[in-house]
Write a structure and sequence with these properties.
This protein is of the alpha/beta class. 43% of the residues lie in helices and 15% in strands. The chain has a domain of 227 residues: Rossmann fold (3-Layer(aba) Sandwich). The strands form four sheets. It has a six-stranded mixed β-sheet with strand order 3-4-14-9-10-13, sandwiched between helices. Strands 8-5-6-7-15 form a five-stranded parallel β-sheet, sandwiched between helices. The structure holds pyridoxal-5'-phosphate (PLP). Pyridoxal-5'-phosphate binds next to helix 11.
């Protein structure tokens, strides 16, 4: 059997296998890599319902990767060894709904589920190819620490994470800078997050430097990240289908880059019986407007209490557009071109004129987010982090006995203890991991807001890879 091949949403990159797709990240033609077909797993669901999280992961991943089963099993075991909960991602009944806790990884955010994997995949591939990699990343908070924990201590990988100096929430900054492994470099850039991102993009465009130093990215468009996230839709969905004896489930997903909910879309396309994917945004509502009105149009980014969703351009959205365009890559190129030139694009419609019957969408603004946190605390003695609360606020009205709601909990509340204090009037969100970083030693270097300074920093700290 030939293993799954990957192609670009823009149709101008030759097909490649999984390992090349992981190392490549973004396709050379600017598109995103997608599997050439989506496996139909409906006749395996009864069996999968009896399996552990790791076993379901194996069954799903083997459909998409090009590595031997034994190696894949080892990678899966290693990637989840760092999780504090035996079920990895437990679904917990709270009131009428289920909360899918995705925050039991080392940095207490759902990004760990994908980034623990990606780090191990990178290491595996680099070992087999006898190569090295220098990861360059820019972060405003969450992603940086999850990426660092994904690759800390790995021999063939160094990671350079830029954050805007003094502009990251103190605890989140400490989650990054308390990691003292030799291969981890935290750069406090004297500028904004956009400056950091600008420097990163500039260095990736410097092709001679990129080649010589083997620069790579861990951003949310990497297919391995989406793939790892498909698993928890199945594990929680099958669990709820069985325990509640229903034939459909619904998911509420707090959304920024459209990465997490895209994994849910793949799960539904593979045959998980999903009635609705409920897309929830904060006031940065480009995606919820899109699914209500069919137009994807740029707005301004405003800061909110769910900062990991303060995003306008959703980097994973192009994969969805590809499916909406029925795989017509010329049409995808046209839509992206329209968006880049005018800041808006029209989504291809369904026959009935609707955008997509699988999706519902809405906005959880600051007021309803805080009210939801308070209500869950008072009625259920359960603390929702503000991102999770956005999803719960938007998703709750869709819950029904025939199609129960599973709300994805994307961060532990202690990561956002200020929002908890604002919501319930008490500073009660705590987690031992975060207590431990409060006074642990840190290491970071200040760097000027200047691409040449960051390039020189890399040159001064690691050898070329070639
Ligand atoms: C990244 C993140 C999100 C948004 O996930 P996307 O894949 O970007 O949609 C939501 N909540 C938290 C806590 C996050 O870190």
């Amino acid at each position: 059997m030939q293993s799954m091949q990957y192609m670009s949403t823009r149709g101008q990159t030759p097909a490649m296998g999984f390992q090349d797709a992981v190392i490549t990240g973004l396709a050379p033609d600017g598109g995103l890599l997608i599997p050439e077909s989506i496996p139909d797993v409906r006749n395996q669901l009864d069996h999968w319902a009896t399996l552990s999280y790791q076993e379901i992961t194996f069954e799903i991943l083997r459909l998409f990767v090009d590595l031997p089963d034994d190696d894949l099993q080892t990678l899966i075991r290693d990637s989840y060894a760092s999780f504090a909960h035996p079920e990895i991602a437990p679904a917990v009944p709270v009131g009428d709904i289920e909360i899918l806790e995705l925050f039991h990884g080392p940095t207490l955010a759902f990004k760990d589920i994908a980034l623990q994997f990606l780090g191990n995949f990178f290491e595996y591939i680099l070992e087999h190819r006898d190569q090295r990699l220098n990861i360059l990343a820019a972060t405003s908070g969450d992603t940086g620490s999850a990426a660092i924990y994904g690759v800390r201590g790995k021999e063939r990988i160094n990671i350079f994470v830029m954050h805007p100096k003094g502009r990251v929430a103190p605890l989140q900054e400490r989650q990054m800078t308390t990691v003292l492994d030799d291969n981890v470099f935290n750069l406090a850039v004297e500028g904004t997050f956009d400056d950091c991102q600008g420097i990163m993009k500039g260095l990736f465009r410097d092709l001679p430097f990129k080649e010589k130093y083997g620069l790579g990215a861990v951003n949310s468009v990497n297919w391995a990240r989406v793939l790892a996230q498909i698993v928890y839709y199945f594990s929680s969905g099958l669990y709820v289908l069985n325990t509640r004896q229903v034939s459909e489930v619904q998911f509420a997903v707090p959304t920024g880059n459209f990465g997490d909910i895209l994994a849910g879309y793949y799960a539904a396309k593979m045959g998980l019986p999903v009635r609705r994917l409920i897309l929830a945004t904060n006031e940065n509502d480009i995606l919820s407007r899109c699914f209500s009105k069919g137009e994807y149009s740029l707005g301004d980014v405003v800061p909110t209490i769910s900062p990991s969703m303060d995003i306008q351009v959703a980097s994973n959205f192009e994969r969805y557009l590809y499916y909406k365009a029925n795989g017509d890559t010329a049409r995808v190129r046209q839509m992206i071109h329209d968006f880049e030139s005018s800041g808006r694009l029209e989504i291809p419609r369904e026959a009935d004129g609707g955008v997509d019957p699988l999706f519902a969408a809405g906005v959880g603004d600051t007021e309803s987010t805080l009210a939801t946190i308070r209500r869950y605390y008072e009625q259920h003695n359960y603390l929702l982090d503000p991102h999770t609360a956005v999803g719960v606020a938007v998703g709750e009205p869709y819950h029904c006995a025939e199609a129960p709601l599973i709300a994805l909990a994307t961060a532990h509340p202690a990561k956002f203890n200020q929002a908890i204090l604002d919501a319930v009037g008490k500073d009660i969100a705590r987690h031992p991991y975060l207590e431990a970083v409060r006074d642990a030693p840190t290491r970071q270097d200040e760097v000027a807001n200047d691409i040449d300074a960051v390039r020189q920093y890399v040159i001064d700290h690691v050898p070329p890879v070639g």
